[in-house]
Amino acid sequence: MEWTEEFWAHTPSKGSNGKPHDLRRHLLDTAARAKGYAEAFGAGNLAYMLGLWHDLGKYNPDFQQYLRDAKQAEEEGKELGRKGPPHAIWGAAHLQNLLSQHPQRSTFILPVLGHHAGLEDDSEGEQKILSESERGRWLKTIAEAIPTFGLQVPSPPEQVPSDAFRQEFFTRMVTSALVDADFLDTERHFGQERPEAREQPLTVEQLWSRFGGGRERLLEKQMREGKVPAPHVRQVRDEVYEECLKTASGKPGLYRLTVPTGGGKTLSGLAFALKHATENGLRRVVVAIPYTSIIDQNAKVYRDVLGADAVLEHHSAIQPPDNKQERQDLATLRLQLATENWDVPLICTTFVQLFESLLARKTSKIRKLHRLARSVIVLDEVQTLPPDLRAPTLDVLRTLVDDYGVSVVLCTATQPAFEMDAYTDSFKGIEQTQIVPQYAEHFQQLKRVDYDKHPNYPEAVLWPDLAAELKERPQVLTILNTRRDALALIRAMQEAEVSNIRHLSTLMCGAHRRKVLAEVEERLDKGQDIRLISTQVVEAGVDLDFPVVYRALAPLDRIIQAAGRCNRNGKDTGQVIIFQTESGKAPKGPYQKGIEKARRLVETRDIAEELNGTDILRDYFELLYRDVEPDEKGVQSLRGQLEFRQVADTYRLIDNDTVSVIVPYGDYAGHLRKWQEFPTRRGWRALQPYIVNIYSHEAKKLRGQGMLRELEENVYLWERKDKYDDLVGLPIDRDPADLIQYKYGENIV
To answer: Where is the HD Cas3-type domain (predicted)?
Structure first.
């Protein structure tokens, strides 16, 4: 046996023809891959060093025996029954010893220490290494591995940022490069997927070359179907598109795309992103959206234009259990390897996935971060970002622009005035380019709706009265602030024998939502009766065109966004009716404060005129930012101390943990069977249309009622087909997407 085969990184596998994964080869290959990833942000040598050191602890004879025992147990069809000795800590300890005088040694140590279990708080990680009773013995053993494997001890490479926040984020990025490289090299060994075939099947240049023809075909199809906008609407859409193409030649940086609803933002924004990426040598486009319902529709438009293979939808993530014990059994490794890494040129994801990953600690979320370097990030409906987290959110966005060659596009009809925010300096002094300079003129040209207060306003409308009123409206959209209110109105409408009711929320799986949206669009096009009752998820980017929209009193930007689902093609004058709900309840926190500010403006300003302009929004955000702390939870203080675990626990767009539930809808069974037999990233992607995210405490309750069966940690199967309702989906009142700041136990006032 050659000496290189004496030391295993992983047990033999079918993918390696029964051979073990050679440890030296794994270290070198992981280092080379990590270097390639980190070179995108100037940290290639550092990532190479971390790749060499990350699994040196597996040189430990006890660990080598553990791998051999695990292989024997697998061959005998048994559980090993014990965990192996830790290994990540010893590579980290050796680096700590080498770099004891380096002022920023944490950036070298913590990625190696956490490449399985996740990033530790700086103080906790250092103490964990120093307090290890066998530290001296294992440091000596690790030192022996270096000449045995023919490795060279490098000097500390590259300059680590001196600013505390920039160092913190740099540590995340090099950790991401290391973790993804390690997982992919392990994946190659186990034959789980073919990484070389899967990475970058397309490029942004290829997607851009498809775009022009695809857009023309889509517009022709819409014309054949009679979806022809009024001439003045078409003129605005053409001007927006041309400005996007013209501005796309600019250098990477911060951009604003301000387009009134109905102005063609979805396609024009994608055109800007693809052309801008192509002309600047950027690697991918990430479109982040507040709600999964919008992902369904945007991704469909992108596929119609670019092809079925063009876009990755990522809203429900595998959440493997924390691998604190650094388990190396095949089942645990396969779940880790199946986590998403955004290795494609066009991704549609949610704000929760993007922003909580940017400040996460778990490897399943951190893994994809390095892919953001030299990319275009389009934040669609950016006004929905939580105002009480705006300081850390904007700081991370600015870091991406300043240090990682990223272009960020703030995209909405209702632009928040971040640069005028007197309470955080994250965007102070940054150059911003307005993609469509004449946006104010477009708002005047696309005045398509009249805003009215309900005759009962400011008094509430009772559910039975509202149901009777909607019965007289053949085509109407009603948007409520909470899922609970939506269900209450639906019950009242059913009792009043109102027909042609549809519902939309994220407690319906993606395949179900797509079916409902298709039915709604068809009935609208044919002039048939349709009454859609929805939560907030419909008002940001969903392309529906109702003649009348009822909107429960909400933050002002949400009311204006709701109007975007009314008379989109500008053929007549639509009507938006603002009303108070019977429950009078709404999510607490910034959302409730937004309602208070909106109420003041609705009751004191000429909403019929001003809500069709932009000045009132500037006044609204100024009032809101004055009343909402920009970093209410103290995230920035924790970031400055490199407290990664506490940052991840504190920076939450959804305050409570959610889990993935696979629902029995459509073709779910075949995809589920394949994923259970062999969990891969491709298999999880195929399951996305059949997944609903619910709160973990709801899952615990439903499991006790026999509704759910746990497949893996944080992944469940909905067992009762008869209890998945064709109208409302899962029979649950609380929808995590009601509001991304939703707080269980204190969520309603």
So the answer is: 16-184
